Each structure stands twice: as structure tokens, then as C-alpha cells.
Amino acid sequence: MTRTWILPILLVLCGSLVSTGLVFSGSPSEAAALLLVFVLLAGVNSPLVFPRSIGALEAQRRSAADGRPVVYWRSGCKYCLRMRFRLGRNARQLHWVNIWRDPAGASAVRAANEGNETVPTVVVAGQPHTNPDPEWVREQLSPSA
């Protein structure tokens, strides 16, 4: 099991435990609502929300060929989640690299951020940008950029 699934699994387990306690105390409707909240939180923090990740070397190769930005991210990062949701459908046009699954991606992020694994780090035309505004990233996708 990779660490990308640890947070979602813990959220579901905690939600299940709390919900079980509520069921035994006589509040099944509250238990169902609370379990639903925990499952939604787990889904949002899972790798399923993001477009399919590729390796850093493949992302760099594709970016050089098509000029689209590379986004280095990790699950559980609220800033990555904010960027993903604010980009909407445009997120599919980017090359996503999960730094927890790709050591070369983690190394690229550390090189761009003084040794820190600060995400999201977006690389546009070879230049890294740490936690940029999603609107700015969307502008980098336009043909005139």
C-alpha cells in the first residue's frame, strides 16, 4: 500500500468507528450522515480526484513536446486540491506528477524549493512556480501564452 491511500483509509476507518458508536447509542441517522461526510472527505483526499499521474521524466518529455505545464502534487494537500478544483476540466490538459509515487518528481520539487517538498509546484517552460494561482495556471494553457 502506498502512502497516497493512508489518509483516505484512515478517514473511512475513523468514520466507521464513530458511526458504529452512534448506531449503538441510538442515533442511526446521525451515524449515516457522519459516515457520509467521512467517505466524502476520503474521496476528496484520495488520488482518484486527480487526473492520472505520470512519472516526472515522462511529464518533462511530454511538456517539452506540447508546451503544457507540469504539476507536481501529492494527495492530502489542500493547495493541490484547491488548484485541481479551480482548474476544472482544464486540469486534464496538464501533466500531473504525484511526488509520493515518483521519486524523480519528489527530487524535482526539492530542487525547485530549496530542499522542501512544497506542492503544488507547477513547471512552465522549464521555470518552477510554487503554489501559483489556478487562474494563472489556466492562462498558461491558452494558445497565446
TrEMBL record:
Residues 70-127 form the Glutaredoxin domain. Pfam families: Glutaredoxin. Residues 126-145 are annotated as: Disordered. It comes from the Bacteria. The chain crosses the membrane at residues 31-50. Coiled coil: none annotated. Keywords: Membrane, Transmembrane, Transmembrane helix. This is Glutaredoxin domain-containing protein. It comes from Streptomyces flavotricini. The lineage of its organism: Bacteria, Bacillati, Actinomycetota, Actinomycetes, Kitasatosporales.
